[in-house]
């Protein structure tokens, strides 16, 4: 029984949020205590994060969420990290995963350890920014030579807040150095890739208390101690999947934001060659689960176009896109060619031309092309996830920012030929907060019970599939040949 107030810190590629959640066994409600911008900072040749700015945003958020907090949990995007020297000091600003330092690096790493071998251990889709490739790109630098510890972004912030040096396992699974079966660091891969084993800190599962806020943090935030920091699904996608309001196990999810993470939840990894060929990842989830999913470019494509056009009113643009003819041109939203920032409308037009389609020329047509392409990528990933894993899928849950994009949700339902249940937008924050509340003892049960609480605490919107199923198949064939 009882009630707790916890702070869910949820850091995305374009903004950070601190949500103050009040949780009882029957209800979870939140207020957004603080929201602050986040984004890349180019310094010379390199794209960085402003990690001290993020830390300050977290402190400001904790102050706004207080003065009484029963716990704090942190989740963020994956793969990126800070390196600490022998004194424990941060070596440079963490590098942004969209930086180009990893161009061509996966190929070089695979010459040492073949991709098929890496996959049999880690079950991870090859994305150039996986931590393992970032570390290979940093080989020979003075910074890596001086590094004694590596901490992923949420663990780095938790370290500054508490002094603890641990690695939360869901996020660790995106490094490319974790054994997906044993949920432990692969000492073999670390050694074969010439990395210092000491870089990698002890792993903790979500729900573990990692430490308490240091005195100077309490003083700065006006909080009354002790305030524990609880490891949550510190990979934002892991927390978002906890926050899916599913009623049964037969669901697929699309966690939308900058990325679309599309897949199913499993009890154990699927490390098949077929899965590798289809670019599926076995990311680890909360409560011993596996997130069997594919990374798809997501709303990044739209955000980048919009930036190019001087950020026009998004509502107007989406209405105009809804009035455009559907599936006139599509691109492969899984193509890593879209990872880097800049020139997005032109790059999309070029991709259409390369596949023999007439490129969209107006903003409305480009936005329609992006949303059709995302829906098509959702369809392909949902179908392949079900096929490759044997998991039944009866409904597709869309959570995260894209859940409020009605056109995207309807197109996803049409493309998948399945009902879409959209919401909550703040699934990651819910997943974060409920794992904390359970660790504190106010909630019991497993993911099913946590999801029931999300369902009863939020509103969702249902979209039924409509339109012509054959048109989606034909569009898919235009891309797959
Ligand atoms: C989503 C996400 C994805 C990850 C990408 C880069 O926010 O965490 O899961 O692949 O960001 O870290």
Automatic annotation (TrEMBL):
<dbReference type="InterPro" id="IPR018484">
    <property type="entry name" value="FGGY_N"/>
</dbReference>
<comment type="similarity">
    <text>Belongs to the FGGY kinase family.</text>
</comment>
<feature type="domain" description="Carbohydrate kinase FGGY N-terminal">
    <location>
        <begin position="8"/>
        <end position="243"/>
    </location>
</feature>
<dbReference type="InterPro" id="IPR000577">
    <property type="entry name" value="Carb_kinase_FGGY"/>
</dbReference>
<dbReference type="InterPro" id="IPR043129">
    <property type="entry name" value="ATPase_NBD"/>
</dbReference>
<protein>
    <submittedName>
        <fullName>Rhamnulokinase</fullName>
    </submittedName>
</protein>
<dbReference type="GO" id="GO:0006071">
    <property type="term" value="P:glycerol metabolic process"/>
</dbReference>
<dbReference type="Pfam" id="PF00370">
    <property type="entry name" value="FGGY_N"/>
</dbReference>
<keyword id="KW-0684">Rhamnose metabolism</keyword>
<keyword id="KW-1015">Disulfide bond</keyword>
<dbReference type="GO" id="GO:0019301">
    <property type="term" value="P:rhamnose catabolic process"/>
</dbReference>
<dbReference type="GO" id="GO:0005829">
    <property type="term" value="C:cytosol"/>
</dbReference>
<keyword id="KW-0808">Transferase</keyword>
<dbReference type="InterPro" id="IPR013449">
    <property type="entry name" value="Rhamnulokinase"/>
</dbReference>
<dbReference type="InterPro" id="IPR018485">
    <property type="entry name" value="FGGY_C"/>
</dbReference>
<dbReference type="Pfam" id="PF02782">
    <property type="entry name" value="FGGY_C"/>
</dbReference>
<dbReference type="GO" id="GO:0008993">
    <property type="term" value="F:rhamnulokinase activity"/>
</dbReference>
<keyword id="KW-0547">Nucleotide-binding</keyword>
<dbReference type="GO" id="GO:0004370">
    <property type="term" value="F:glycerol kinase activity"/>
</dbReference>
<dbReference type="GO" id="GO:0005524">
    <property type="term" value="F:ATP binding"/>
</dbReference>
<feature type="domain" description="Carbohydrate kinase FGGY C-terminal">
    <location>
        <begin position="252"/>
        <end position="439"/>
    </location>
</feature>
<keyword id="KW-0418">Kinase</keyword>
<keyword id="KW-0067">ATP-binding</keyword>
């Amino acid at each position: 029984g009882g009630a707790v107030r916890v702070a869910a810190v949820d850091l995305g590629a374009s903004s950070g949020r601190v949500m103050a959640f009040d949780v009882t066994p029957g209800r979870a409600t939140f207020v957004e205590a603080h929201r602050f911008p986040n984004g890349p900072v180019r310094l010379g040749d390199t794209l960085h994060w402003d990690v001290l700015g993020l830390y300050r945003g977290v402190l400001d958020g904790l102050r706004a969420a207080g003065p009484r907090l029963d716990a704090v949990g942190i989740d963020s995007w994956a793969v990126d990290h800070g390196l600490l020297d022998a004194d424990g000091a941060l070596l440079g600003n963490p590098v942004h995963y969209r930086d180009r330092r990893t161009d061509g690096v996966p190929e070089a790493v695979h010459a040492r350890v073949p991709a098929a071998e890496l996959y049999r251990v880690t079950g991870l889709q090859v994305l150039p920014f996986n931590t393992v490739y970032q570390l290979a790109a940093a080989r020979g630098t003075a910074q890596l030579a001086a590094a004694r510890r590596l901490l992923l972004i949420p663990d780095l912030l938790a370290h500054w807040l508490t002094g603890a040096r641990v690695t939360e396992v869901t996020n660790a699974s995106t490094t490319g150095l974790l054994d997906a079966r044993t949920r432990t660091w692969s000492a073999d891969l670390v050694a074969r890739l010439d990395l210092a084993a000491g870089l990698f800190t002890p792993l903790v599962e979500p729900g573990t208390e990692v430490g308490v806020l240091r005195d100077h943090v309490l003083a700065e935030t006006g909080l009354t101690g002790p305030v524990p920091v609880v490891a949550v699904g510190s990979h934002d996608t892991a927390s978002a999947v906890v926050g899916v309001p599913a009623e049964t196990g037969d669901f697929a999810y699309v966690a939308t934001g900058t990325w679309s993470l599309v897949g199913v939840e499993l009890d154990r990894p699927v490390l098949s060659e077929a899965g590798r060929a289809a670019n599926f990842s076995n990311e680890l989830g909360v409560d011993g689960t596996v997130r069997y999913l594919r990374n798809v470019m997501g709303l990044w494509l739209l955000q980048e176009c919009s930036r190019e056009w001087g950020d026009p009113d998004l509502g107007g643009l989406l209405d105009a896109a809804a009035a455009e003819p559907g599936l006139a041109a599509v691109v492969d939203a899984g193509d890593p060619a879209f990872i880097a920032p800049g020139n997005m409308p032109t790059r999309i037009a070029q991709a259409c031309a390369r596949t023999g389609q007439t490129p969209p020329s107006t903003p409305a047509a480009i936005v329609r092309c992006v949303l059709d392409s995302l829906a098509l990528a959702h369809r392909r990933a949902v179908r392949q996830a079900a096929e490759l894993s044997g998991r039944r899928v009866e409904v597709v849950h869309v959570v995260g920012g894209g859940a409020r994009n009605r056109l995207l949700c309807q197109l996803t339902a049409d493309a998948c030929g399945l009902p879409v249940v959209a919401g909550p937008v703040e699934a990651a924050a819910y997943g974060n907060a409920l794992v904390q509340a359970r660790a504190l003892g106010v909630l019991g049960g497993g993911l099913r019970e946590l999801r029931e609480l999300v369902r009863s605490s939020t509103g969702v919107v249902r979209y039924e599939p409509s339109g012509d199923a054959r048109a989606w198949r034909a569009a898919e064939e235009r891309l797959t040949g």
